[in-house]
Amino acid sequence: MWDDPRALSRLADALYAVVVAALVVTAALWVSRLPVFAVREVRVVEATAHVSGEQIAEVVRAGVHGNFFAVDLPQLRAALEGLPWVRRVALRRVWPDRIEVAIEEHVPLARWSPQGLVNTHGELFAGAHDGALPLFGGPAGSAKEITIQYHLFSKLLADIGEAPREITISARRAWRVKLAGGMTLDLGRERVEERLERFVAAWPRTIARMGRRVEHADLRYPNGFAVRIPELRNDKDKGGGAPDGTRPAPATGKAPA
After folding, report:
1. Helix, strand or coil, per DSSP, at residue 78
2. What is this structure's pTM?
3. Pair type for strands 98-105 and 86-94
4. Buried b vs exposed e over 125-148: b needs ≥16 C-beta within 10 Å?
5. Secondary structure of the chain: what % helix, strand, coil (to 5)?
6. Tens digit of pLDDT for each residue in 165-195?
7. 52-105 pLDDT, tens per residue?
C-alpha cells in the first residue's frame, strides 16, 4: 500500500474526514455549553384547566439541564406527562432561548369503578372531578369499548328523552345500562345495539303508555322485553303481573320467547 499513491491518497482523505468530524463534534459540544445560549424562557402556548403554572415550572426547573442545545426534550416531555391530568405534551425549541410547551389535558367523560376517570378517548387516568359524570365499570381493558358504546347508547336513548347514567360489563361480557331516569336495562352479551334499538322503537306504545314507574327492563328476549314495576309487587288486585312485579311488554304483537 505504501507504494500505491492512490491508496495513500484515499487513506489521507479518510483520516482528514475523521479529523474534521471530530472537530465538528468538539465544537458543537463546546458551543452547547456556552452560557450565552442559556434557556431564558419556557412558555406554555395553550391554556390548561387542571395543570397549574407552578406545577409546570417545578418540572421544568428539575428537567432543564444545560443550555438551549443541551436540553433533553424527550426526558422533559416524559416528566411533564407524569403530571395529573396531562395526556400528551409537545415541546419545541424556539431560537435563541425559548422552549415552548403545548399540553393536551385529559377531558373527563366518565368515572371508572372502583376509582379513576375515563377520558373522551376511552383511556383511564387519575384525577379528581367534582362534576356529574356517568359511571363505567368492567374488566381490565374494557374502558375504550364502553366509551364507544356509550356514545351509541346515548344517541339511541336521546330519542326517548333518556341518557345512560351507568354502563357496566360483567365478567361474562353481559351489558347493563342504568338510565338517568332510574330504569336499569339488561342487554345481555349479544346484539346489544339491536336490542336497545328495538326497546327504543317500542317505547311509545309500551313504557310510555303504562303510566307507571318501570324499575327494570330485561331486553334479552328474541321478540320483546319484560319489565319490573314496583307498584305491582305483591299486589294481588293487579292482573297479568307476576308476584315480583315483572310484566311482559312485547315489542311486537307476540309475547317474548
Report:
1. helix
2. 0.76
3. antiparallel
4. beeeeeeeebebbbeeebbeebbe
5. 35, 25, 40
6. 999 999 999 999 999 999 999 999 999 999 9
7. 888 988 998 888 877 777 788 999 999 999 999 999 999 998 888 888 999 999
